[in-house]
Amino acid sequence: MAKIKPVSGKKKPSGPQSPGAIPCLLMVVLIFLVLGFILYYSIARAN
Fold this sequence. Notes:
- By secondary structure, the protein is an all-alpha fold.
- The chain is 55% helix and 0% strand.
């Protein structure tokens, strides 16, 4: 009779989980800065 073993998943490396996290975070911060600048400029020019 065949022995059945449970499938073990690949172990994840102990390094950073996703190498694309830093550029994504920079993009989010840049978008917030640009939106904040646009809002500030539009409010400052309204008066």
